[in-house]
Each structure stands twice: as structure tokens, then as C-alpha cells.
Amino acid sequence: MPPHLKHAMPKAFWIAGLAVVFLLLYAPILSAVLFSFSADRFPSLNMSGFSTQWYAQVLTDRAMLEALWNSLTVAGITALIATTLGFAAAYADYRFRFFGQKAVLALALLPPTVPLVILGLAMLAFFSRIGIAGTLTAVVAAHVVIAAPFAMAVCRLRLAQLDETLETAAQNLGAQPSSALIRIVLPHTLPAILAAFLITFAVSFDEYVIAWFTGGLNQTIPVAVLNTLQGQVDPTIHVIGTLSFSVTLTLVLIALAVVLSQSGGAMSKEET
Amino acid sequence: MTSPAIAARTPARRFHFLFNRAWQALWVLPLPAWLLLFFAVPLGLLVAISFWSVANYRLTPDATLSAWRYVLGLDFLWASFWRSYGLAMASAVAVSLLAFPASYAMAFVAAPRQRLILLGLAIAPFFTSYLVRIYSWQVFLAEGGVISSIVQALGGKGESLLNTYFALFLGHATLALPVVLILQTIALANVDRTGISAAANLGARPGAILLRVILPAARPGLTLGLLFAFLLSYAEFVSAAYLGGGAFQTLPILVTDLVRAGQQWPRAAVVSLLMIASLLATAFVTVLWAYREKG
């Protein structure tokens, strides 16, 4: 900001606005963490004490552990496929000029704009016709659709910072396309690939609408939470919430740290 | 007669050309292929199903407009449609206004490095369990919950805030705030700083700079933020069900009810397509407006 510019409102106003927003974003997360350790069944501010009983209950619940295993499997395979496809598409968009390039890009960015309820419905109809409805394979196939655009966007942003002539120069000097890719493009894009993997893992790990439609009896953690929500007050939701917040927040914060360390490097390069 | 040199070169070139094409296809094709199979085909099937019929709870391929006629003639469908649309628009405007001071603080008050960290912290909740956060809001809003306890301690009545527009708005804000924050902040941070300095040097007051320089320059990003808040709120059904208490019948709830209650796939497909059409129309108009030339 130019140092002489005065803000339309005092600085405190803008900072207060920021504080309110962060309060709204983090209050439900902090409340889930707090009440996950409550000794009471009903969450209230007059907590009678701290207890880890709900953790013990969740961690010995076979259905819940199975849901956790389903979530981890689905998210892991989804992240692997979505990151591979996302990187390939980002690299294709960066490196080649081909017929229908804009259409491909538009198609790749479309899934996040279609309501998940509708996608879930459409996918259930399709999967039951090809005979995979109600399986984890169906959930993975669907999750890749919604996660791959994130992976593509993250990788494409990173590739945009790579000098396009480097790879061509290497190829002109006799490098095979594959070795130019392995020696120049991949090392440069590796942080983004890692970030894409973590983000797509988080996207899949928390998705419940499509998993609910297409997973059948194979529950993932969020689907288990959704089913619990439909019933009575259940303090174990706070435990599941705290555990899944820890998983996704850690993944996303690592992804951000990776991206930030890169942009920090880029900034310091610009300064020198 | 071809010269031996050319004859020798041509197959090699051909091979080289084909190899390059194959190499290119290896990168270009996988994602579109996956999306065609698992995204475009299912949506196409949904369009087809909207023309199918249901007899004895069995879905039969057909070419009838009966589901369209039935759904479009329902008064409560249109009531749900306008309720959904209005609620989503109102939420989008409210979330955008709520986010603006925070985005401004990140773009103009925070130092660049702080801005990146704050943006990271703002976007991280987007990837955490939305359901659990909604459940937490129930705990805050219910009678005897966190907010009513505080209000009672201060001498107020402390009634339940569940099943109110405020509760529904909180749910939508929880979902959309991170995305709106990131789009607004990027839009504001990219406003040309020399334009701001020039206006200041020419004696423009801070309020005028905000209204006449910063806001118009950031308009595309601010509008995209509004659009995404709308898209997210319009499609969301957990808030309406668990914070609105089911009092607000919205289109996504209608879609799930139609399928679960009576296997009414063609009718559910029609409602879905109506939703997609209205989303696309809104997005189209909004994007046109966002990038409209000034004047």
C-alpha cells in the first residue's frame, strides 16, 4: 500500500471485521474440540468436567473404525488418481497447443459448479446402470471428478512460473521429451503436486453428499456423521469432528506451507 | 525416383511425428476422458431420465414430457424455487458484505507475508468437515446452548435461534466465507496501486478513493465472490435441514425427497435440470456484468 494512503475507515474497523470473520470460521471448530472432551452428554457451557470417554467410545466402535478405514482408502486412492490426472491436464495445457484446448479447460473446471446433490443423483443413476453403485469404487470415481479440478488448478499455477523456453531448449539440445519432463518440469512442480495430493485428499475425506448417494452400505466418516445428525444429540460427533478437523487441517496447512514457502522464495528472488 | 536421402528421412520423420502426437495425447486425454465418462455421461443420463416414465415404481426408458409437465405445474415447486433462489441471493449478498472488511484488511492493512498466512488460515476451514461445523452451530444456537446461556447470564430470555433465517444464514456463511474471502482479497490486492496513489495525490478523500477507485477496479473479483457464495448456498441442503429445521423447503431437499420417498427419478431429474439451468443463467448474467466495460 502506498504509505501516504489513508483508509476510508480507521484501521481498527477493518481489523475488527477480520476478527469477526475468523471468529465465525473457527468458533464451530473450537467448540467441537472443546465439547469432545466434555464429561457431559449434552454440550453446554456449564461443563461438569473433562473426560476422554467419547474418544474411547469412538475408537472402540467397529462401525466407526470401518468408516474411517473406508474414508482413508477412498481419499488416498482419489488423491492419487486426481493428482495424476490433474497434473497431466495442467502439463498438457501448459506445454501443448491442441484442438479443443479451451473446451477441455472448461470441462475440467465445470464439476465444482454443479450442485453436489445433482451430481450425486446423476452418478447414482449412471453407476447403477454400469453395476458399480454401492461400492467404494463408485465413490472414488465420483470423488476424482470433484477433486481433479483442484489438483489441476494448483499444478497449473505452479507451471505458470516455469520458463516455457527451458524445456524446449533442453529438447533442442537433444533431450527426449520424457527426460526434459523428469529433469526440469517435475522437480519444479513437485511442491504443487504434493499440495495437490494433500488438498484432493482433504476434499475426498470430507465429502458426504456424493458418498452418501453412491456408497450404499459402505459408509465413510462424513456419511456416518450425516446419519448420526439425523438422530439424537450424540457427543461422539464432536470427537469425530475433532479427529477429522485434525486430519484435514493438518493436510491443508502443510499444503499451504509448501505453497507459501515457494511463493516466499519467488518473492525474495524478485527482491534481489 | 526419390532420392535415397529423402527416402531415409521420411519414415524417421513420420515416426517422430507419430511419437510426438502419442506423447501429447498421453497428457491431454486422461482428465477429459475421466470427466466425460464419470461427469458428462451421468449428467446426460439425468437429462434422458427426465423424459422417462415410472410404472409400478419401475423406471422405464421413454420419451414423454409427463415429468416436465407434472413438475412445472406444481405450485409448491415454484414456491421452493423462489425460496431457494431468494435465500441463496440474500445469503450471497450478506456473506459478501460480511467478508468485505476482512478482505480489505488482508489486502490493504496486512503486509504481503501476513496476507498469505491469513489467506491460508481463512481457506483452511473450507476443507474441514462442514457437517461437524453445522452440528457445532446447532450447539451454539439451540435453547440452553452457548449463545442462549450467554444471553441468559446477561439477563435476557435466551431463546433458541434454531429454525430461523439467522441460523440458515450462519450455515451458508460457514460454507461460503472462505471462498468469498479469497476471491475478494485477490481482487482487492490486485487493484492497481498507482491509480490509488494518483487519486490520493489529486486530493481525493479516502472514502471517495474506496468508492470510485478501489471498488470499481475490484468489481470482477467481488462479483465472482458473490456468484460463488450464491452457487454454494443455492446447492446446499444441510443448513436448511439441520439449522432451518426443515421449515425451509429448498430445491436440493426436494430433489432428495423425490428420489427417496417414491423413486420419482424423472421428477427429481426435472427439478435438478431446472436448478442447473437457473444456476447457469445466473452465472452467465453475473459474469457478463462483472466484466462489463465501464461507461
UniProtKB/TrEMBL annotation, chain B:
Its main location: membrane. Keywords: Cell membrane, Membrane, Plasmid, Transmembrane, Transmembrane helix, Transport. It is a multi-pass membrane protein. It is found in: Cell membrane. CDD domains: TM_PBP2 (cd06261). InterPro entries: MetI-like, MetI-like_sf. The chain crosses the membrane at residues 33-55, 91-109, 116-135, 165-188, 237-256, 268-291. Residues 81-286 form the ABC transmembrane type-1 domain. One of its GO terms (biological process) is transmembrane transport. PROSITE patterns: ABC_TM1. It comes from the Bacteria. GO terms for cellular component: plasma membrane. Belongs to the binding-protein-dependent transport system permease family. CysTW subfamily. PANTHER family: INNER MEMBRANE ABC TRANSPORTER PERMEASE PROTEIN YDCU-RELATED, INNER MEMBRANE ABC TRANSPORTER PERMEASE PROTEIN YDCU-RELATED-RELATED. This is ABC transporter permease. It comes from Leisingera methylohalidivorans DSM 14336.
